[in-house]
């Protein structure tokens, strides 16, 4: 019995360390902003997020998630819970399975950056930004467009998904010393991400 438990706690510890590194990789001002909006804490788990989140909300005195919301959350790698001011990540999500150690770390870090970008977007996008989602998605790189549409998001979620995806890509690019607007990114989207997230490079 001891063996699997040890493995679990060490793999969770490893995952938590990766997310911690991803946090440190963010620009200082972004970490301040994320603290302000209640997205600076995180927890890593090794189970479907629907159940985890349901339990977290219940133990905080809330009503928990509906059956449908639980099923939606089960499909997610990570979810930001504004009411509990925490980002929850499922480190055993199928999209992370079978990756090499390096690819796993990169994918988990990208997931954390995505959630933090998402949190900034939810708090700081205007209604007009949200309304423009469909048009903005059409201006976005094909890969992002495919990911967002392929995942079945609804049009009112497009802008947030777009900002989260581009934010994660910009943080990742900064790790390799990239700066300025990437050639592949439409200036309107770059300006949106700059305004919403406070991106400075
Ligand atoms: Zn997202």
Explain what this protein looks like in three dimensions:
- The protein is mainly alpha-helical and 201 residues long.
- It starts with a helix and ends with a helix.
- The chain is globular and about 45 Å long.
- The chain is 65% helix and 7% strand.
- The N terminus is likely disordered.
- It folds into two domains: 116 residues, no CATH class; 77 residues, no CATH class.
- Bound molecules: zinc ion.
- Zinc ion binds next to helix 5 and helix 9.
Mean pLDDT: 92
How many individual β-strands?
3
Would you list the SSEs in sequence order as H and E? HHEHHEEHHHHHH
Contiguous helical run count:
10
What hetero molecules are in the model?
Answer: zinc ion
Q: Largest beta sheet, briefly?
A: 3 strands, mixed
Could you give a short description of this structure?
The protein has helices at 2-24, 28-37, 49-59, 67-75, 101-124, 127-131, 133-139, 142-150, 155-175, 187-197, and strands spanning 41-45, 78-81, 86-90.
Topology:
Layout (H helix, E strand, L loop, with lengths): L1 H23 L3 H10 L3 E5 L3 H11 L7 H9 L2 E4 L4 E5 L10 H24 L2 H5 L1 H7 L2 H9 L4 H21 L11 H11 L4
Helix pairs in contact: 1-5, 3-4, 5-9, 7-9, 8-9
The chain binds zinc ion.
Feature tags:
201 residues; three-stranded mixed beta sheet; 2 domains; 10 helices; mainly alpha; binds zinc ion
């Amino acid at each position: 019995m001891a063996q699997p438990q040890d493995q679990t706690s060490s793999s969770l510890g490893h995952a938590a360390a990766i997310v911690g590194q991803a946090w440190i990789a963010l620009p200082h001002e972004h970490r301040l902003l994320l603290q302000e909006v209640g997205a600076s804490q995180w927890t890593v788990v090794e189970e479907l997020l629907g159940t985890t989140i349901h339990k977290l909300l219940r133990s905080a005195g809330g009503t928990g998630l509906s059956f449908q919301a639980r099923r939606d959350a089960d499909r997610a790698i990570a979810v930001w819970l504004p009411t509990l001011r925490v980002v929850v990540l499922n480190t055993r999500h199928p999209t992370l399975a079978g990756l090499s150690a390096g690819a796993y770390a990169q994918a988990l870090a990208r997931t954390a950056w995505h959630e933090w970008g998402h949190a900034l977007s939810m708090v700081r996008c205007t209604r007009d930004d949200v309304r423009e989602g469909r048009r903005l998605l059409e201006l976005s790189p094909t890969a992002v467009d495919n990911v967002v549409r392929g995942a079945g998001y609804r049009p009112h979620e497009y802008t947030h998904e777009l900002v989260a995806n581009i934010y994660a890509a910009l943080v990742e690019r900064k790790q390799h010393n990239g700066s300025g607007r990437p050639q592949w990114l439409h200036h309107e989207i770059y300006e949106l991400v700059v305004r919403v997230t406070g991106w400075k490079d």
